[in-house]
Amino acid sequence: MLAMNYRGPFRVRIDEKPYPEILHPEDAIIRVTRSCICGSDLHLYHGLVPDTRVGSTFGHEFIGIVEEVGPEVTEIQVGDQVLVPFNIACGKCAFCKQELYGNCHESNPEATAVGGIFGYSHTAGGFDGGQAEYVRVPYANVGPTRIPPEMDPDDAVLLADVVPTAYQAAEMGGIKKGDTVVIFGAGPIGIMAAKCAWLFGAGRVIVIDHLEYRLEFVKSYAQCEAYNFRSMEDPVLFIKKTTDWFGADVCIDAVGGDAAGNALQTITGRKTLLQAGSATALHWAINAVKKGGIVSIVGVYGPTDNLVPIGNVVNKGITIRANQASVKRVLPKLIDHVLAGRLDPKGIITHRLPLEEISDAYRMFSAKLDDCIKTVLIPPKATM
Amino acid sequence: MEETKDYSHIKGWGIDIDPENEPTYPIKKYTGDDHAQSRWERPSLQPIDVEVLHSNERPNVSAVFGNTLPPKGLSGAIRRFAFRYSENRYRHWLPLILADRIDMVEGLIEDLRRGHVPNILAEKGYKAEWKYNQRGVIKKAVAAAAVAAYLVLLLKRGRK
Lengths: 384, 160
Hints:
The complex is a heterodimer. Chain A is α/β, with parallel strands linked by helices. Helix content of chain A is 27%, strand content 23%. By secondary structure, chain B is an all-alpha fold.
């Protein structure tokens, strides 16, 4: 079968790989019909995540058709069209029982700090991902969810990660009616988080980025304010001034370790890997939130350390909330929002490319070519 | 288990317990019995038929795991060394980053050994870069040529 093949930082190609096998009684094999490149795939592509082995297949946002199931799979059947949450969760451990499906303790031997994730390095369990024609899906009774027949597959594929992560970012912000919410990053997650912030009753939603085309997009897609930090001397001062000098009620870091905007952070975080990525957005979020405010982090960082003003967290009495999205927990509500037209995930898709053009797809997304926001990959055997 | 412990010797123990004060809501379904949940019936165990490195912060391999790309070669030896240390240590993460870079070279050698000469420009997506950012590609090419010419000059001077 065809599958993406990571060859080292900034190098990926399409290759023939063996068809996946059922290795556990609760496994399923899914024929992929859509997969996406996620902003967090870029952290892998840029070589920022330790234990990303050459030969890996990335891809944790995918949907498909059930091709084969193991003997203990009862919740889905061959032929079902399913969307697959990016977290691999057993449903039985203490963390899954508490609906912390992103923190499963039975899906990742290599690290205890994160549960298993499809196609996200051996630090996240060493599973192959969905940027392929077929993929092995463990714990198929827990994760895969049948796609409602009336749902557009392009909406469904964005429910595997983008929408749940953005929704949980807003949810963790504890947004109260009328709150000012500042979102750092106008990538797919930041754009969707802006949209979700309104669902929680935000009074004002502000997005900060440096790419004009994305700012223009989010302004219209999420009906929010959008500002370019390159056009201001200091984004934190700008936010203070525009919030009566107090700061935002809630700040969301929707960027993670690939942030631009601060030379020291860029050199130590992205160029020399002395930090676990550049923490510019988080730094700004901590300094731009008001005293007693909430900082919600969904941007992805590596497992080592980052330079952030932790003293200000203490002195301002900030609450920091963060986690990998618990996709299964929020999925029923989000399916409802999409079917009711309150959320329009497919509206952020800008590019649809054949899986065979994976090298170009990564380059376009990484280098922000052709006003790229979200890329969907279509395998040759996709029928839906 | 928590409920078998006796704290009566600690004056005031538990006097301010407030089950409503649960800051992890809504991301965690808090049931009040966290400590009772620390043992669970494990799922069936995936047979371990490849070398799986597991964090020394857990006693065993998780019930399922990715069986892809077991450690091999020099990069594999470095990864085995890294997994002797906990996720809390730089000795764990920095060797893994080093192993990743060595793995890249090993991958290149493996490609050549199998008679496959990788098209690195294609793998880096330069077709798309050329299509959408010709000026950028030309700038990079000119800069690279200038650096190469400078290095050649330096070498020539060194020989004299």
